[in-house]
Design a protein that fits this description.
Two copies of one chain form a homodimer. Chain A folds into two domains: 124 residues, Rossmann fold, CATH 3.40.50.1000; 40 residues, no CATH class. Chain A contains six helices and six strands. Chains A and B meet through helix 4 and strand 3 of A and helix 4 and strand 3 of B.
């Protein structure tokens, strides 16, 4: 059975609304899409400390689930072994939050298939679905770029805009 | 630069004294070496609940450092990229403890090189130093079995009895 590694933030966990809420609370207005298109969410001019919230206990514990991801992952599990691979190690307090979040929202994935790492280049799966081009750059298998505002201008990788497009990609892979 | 994955418990973190202390506290006597030779430490007859302590917050936070491991890892870092790879995901509360422990005792290893996983078969490094035969069985690179009481009868892998033997092994590898 081939193996798919799936990233968490901005792939199965939707971090964007929380960043926009924090920005609005700190700066007094909600940023427009133009302000964060092609940029990381914590690079919107106006609140230079916004990235520090990532270090807070609880930050990653209550993120909404990305639309369609639960159903799609369940479908993929019929044909592939699924690993959740999150570059979580920068954020010590995120580790328990992410573990709890996976147990709550993806209880059908065994804890044996969770990976909290820093550098994804040592992940030896056949596929990686990730929103960060730098993770796909060093990955040795086939990388899929999951669309996020910050990667809008990235052209080097196979792009999937949502979980329906992920399923369509793997249907084609199986038909090969 | 070739990559070495190094396990934590019973390789760089010495879990044995803590298990023996707990056994002694619960059962009223310290087990003899004969009782745990060739067995997992939590399989010593007398306290069947001893494995449950692994789930407690703090359990992994104050383990002693395995003799010679800090100096040996520093030496290996001159020639190899080192990753710490712990199958920690069964124990949700161990994650922050293990992160803190690494920051305290191995501050010269970057967090980017920490991996907390469940199944080590997806770790794509050149070497793995581990006390568990089941991790070496599925590893695709060269595995080294780090001696522990529980693996005393294991014959299938290159054995290293301590960190001096690890260094001697890699000196030979470099001379090849």
């Amino acid at each position: 059975m081939k193996r798919i590694a799936i990233d968490m933030d901005e792939v199965i966990a939707d971090i964007q609304p929380k960043f926009l809420d924090i920005f609005e609370k700190q700066v007094g207005r909600r940023p427009s899409e133009d302000e964060y298109f092609g940029k990381k969410l914590y690079e919107i001019p106006g609140d230079e400390n916004i990235r520090s919230y990532l270090f807070d206990p609880g930050f990653f514990g209550d993120l909404p689930v990305m639309e369609g991801s639960q159903e799609a992952v369940k479908k993929l599990m019929a044909h592939y072994e699924i690993f959740i691979v999150s570059a979580a190690q920068e954020f010590r307090n995120s580790l328990a939050d992410k573990h709890d979040w996976l147990q709550q929202h993806f209880p059908f994935i065994h804890w044996k298939n969770y990976v909290f790492c820093g550098d994804k280049s040592l992940i030896g799966t056949d596929y990686l679905i990730d929103d960060h081009a730098f993770n796909l750059e060093t990955f040795k298998g086939k990388g899929l770029l999951f669309s996020a505002a910050h990667n809008a201008y990235e052209k080097r990788f196979t792009r999937v805009n949502d979980w329906n497009e992920v399923l369509a990609f793997f249907e084609q892979e199986q038909a090969k």
